[in-house]
Amino acid sequence: MLVESPNNSTQKLVLMDTIQRLEVEYHFKNDIETSIQNIFKESQQSKNDDDLYVVALRFRLVRQQRHYICDISAMESVSPNLRRIYKVLIEFLNEIEDELKKEGKADRVYYAKVEVIKLA
């Protein structure tokens, strides 16, 4: 049933979740991995209008198999006001970095600043 049903069907997601909760997933390991890879590929290509439960379930099952989902297109919908907040945050991180340079610990801020810059 795992392989035969459509990739994003709610029934398939619920079935995989139930199998994992019953802790018998080792019997279906290959089927689950194949199904989750297909779900991951399909989720990158399409926009789904599922309810919150289905989206959360899909997200959890895919993340458990170490597939990381990132919707970079969501940044396009961020308001200009929020972008200003990111700029202020970057300036604040620069100030923190200057203070930590005095103590020889500036490298700790670098990675946070890089991630914030990616968001802006």
TrEMBL record:
Pathway(s) where this gene product acts: Secondary metabolite biosynthesis; terpenoid biosynthesis
Residues of the Terpene synthase metal-binding domain: 70-119
Requisite cofactors: Mg(2+)
Domain Terpene synthase N-terminal stretches: 5-69
Keyword flag Metal-binding: no
Name used for this protein in its record: Uncharacterized protein
Top-level lineage group: Eukaryota
This protein's record includes keyword Lyase: yes
GO molecular function, one term: terpene synthase activity
UniProt entry keywords in alphabetical sequence: Lyase
